[in-house]
Design goal:
Number of helices: 10
CATH architecture of the largest domain: 4-Layer Sandwich
Strand order of the largest sheet: 6-5-4-8-7-3-13-14
Strand content: 15-25%
Low-confidence stretches: 1-20, 28-32
Helix content: 25-40%
Oligomer: single chain
Bound molecules: aspartic acid
Number of strands: 15
């Protein structure tokens, strides 16, 4: 059965409770009285671009716009930043020097999701994911199929490899092995100082980085995006957790949302964001639920390698406007950007398991 949502009813719904309204609401539907601070938008990014993204998303929410519009427009700000080597344009390429992007989007209101993986040449993969979600009966498109689809919808192909990312990749390539022919000629190898040749382009082994954007609008609807250039120097075709619903991103309109960054392989195996949202459904706060997921991952590895603590960081929000983030032990305290009725702030989360 198909349900048609007319343009008019979509427009009416997206108008929400009126332009410019700032609400501190109590939702009777939650079964008990709890103060709810909405709208709200958060991101795992805490740099200036992350801040700008929050301003953009907040403007939409404050004017009665939908959470899904807010997360898309906010994520786009981070995706097009050429200085950010972990997301969208300017991301670190795969081992062949090609930037391949992964992104997912989920709309709690419609229980709808879309994603793209290994998408090349398009700066804003989360917007392509949104069209997969809204204008197809599929959830995920990958590689050439995703690119063909994006072009049909008018997305322009562009070279995503910035000068900075190309040099980071070249340095990695030259440093990979002394048994290939990359790097200075053999008779000069011992004389050349690689450090000074590649000054400003630090040696990178495995480069992680992603962004999550999660929001609640004035109607109490929840949406989220996870977008990334994935693991730096990955094998071409590698898909991380970011475009996989339940791994890199999960949203439940009755509960909240969670997003993941870090070593995607663990996030996929543990269905981490689904787990976080289910923990929140059982009553855990976003902060506690993020910690629970990290502990769950460590427990899985205990028998195989008790010293293995992969690099995940999780962020989560619940329907009440509470938020939290946690990072795996060994990597310093995690932070996230939050924009709500109190303005913009950086929240410091916790480390789990405790050190
Ligand atoms: N989770 C991303 C991936 O595995 C990378 C990251 O967040 O650093 O593709």
């Amino acid at each position: 059965m198909t349900t048609k949502i007319s343009r008019r009813s979509f427009f009416n719904r997206s108008l929400g409770l009126g332009a410019g309204a700032l609400l501190i609401k109590t939702f009777p539907t939650f079964g008990f009285s709890k103060k709810v601070t909405i709208p709200m938008i958060v991101t795992s990014h805490t740099n200036q671009t992350g801040h700008n993204a929050m301003e953009t998303g907040w403007e939409i929410l404050l004017n009665g716009g939908s959470a899904i519009d807010a997360v898309e427009k906010a994520a786009n700000i981070i995706e097009i930043d050429p200085e950010d080597a972990s997301v969208g344009y300017g991301g670190i390429p795969n081992e062949h020097g090609v930037v391949q992007l992964d992104a997912s989007i989920m709309d709690g209101k419609t229980y709808n999701a879309g994603s793209v993986a290994c998408l090349e040449n398009i700066k804003i993969p989360s917007s392509v994911a949104r069209i997969v979600m809204e204008r197809t009966d599929h959830v995920m498109l990958v590689g050439q199929g995703a690119l063909d689809f994006a072009k049909k919808w008018g997305f322009r192909e562009e070279n995503l490899l910035t000068e900075k990312a190309r040099k980071i990749w070249l340095r990695w390539k030259e440093g990979l092995s002394d048994r290939d022919d990359w790097g200075p000629p053999e008779h000069l190898k011992d004389k050349e100082d690689l450090e000074s040749y590649w000054e400003g382009f630090p040696e990178t082994e495995h480069h992680y980085g992603t962004t999550n954007v999660l929001a609640i609008d004035q109607n109490g609807d929840v949406a989220g995006i996870t977008t990334t250039s994935g693991l730096g120097f990955k094998i071409p075709g590698r898909v991380g957790d970011s475009p996989i619903i339940g791994a890199g991103l999960y949203v439940d309109n009755e509960v909240g949302a969670a997003g993941a960054t870090g070593r995607g392989e663990d996030v996929i195996k543990s269905c981490a964001t689904f787990y976080i949202v289910m923990r929140m459904k059982e009553g855990r706060t976003p902060q506690e639920a993020c910690e629970d997921a990290l502990i769950m991952i460590v427990d899985k590895y205990k028998k195989v390698n008790p010293d293995f603590f992969p690099s995940e960081k999780f962020v989560a929000i619940n329907k009440y406007g509470e938020f939290g983030c946690a990072r795996m032990k060994g990597r310093g305290k995690p932070r996230m950007s939050v924009m709500n009725d109190k303005g913009y702030s950086k929240h410091e989360g916790t480390i789990a398991p405790q050190e």
